[in-house]
Amino acid sequence: MAYEIPVTQARAEFADLINRVVYGGERVVVTRHGKPLVALVSAVDLERLEASEEPAEEEIVSSVSKVPEAAPAARERQRFGIAAEHRGPGVS
Fold it and tell me: Which domains does the chain have, with CATH numbers?
């Protein structure tokens, strides 16, 4: 659970908030009009967050690269009235 504090109060207590995050292990959410604006987290928490994002990006790229390119089937060409199809150079 994060400690919430309005931005005006956070300005006045910034040094104390840093100490709470670094030494107390707290997470601080700074709010404006009751809505979350920014969060103060320790460098260790930030490293964990960034590390957890990296594998997800790699998984997406590898998943997309495994999708085979589909060639239109003769039945589909006939169904949609496709008379011709593009073939790369050197393909007959």
Answer: 1-44 (3.40.1620.10)
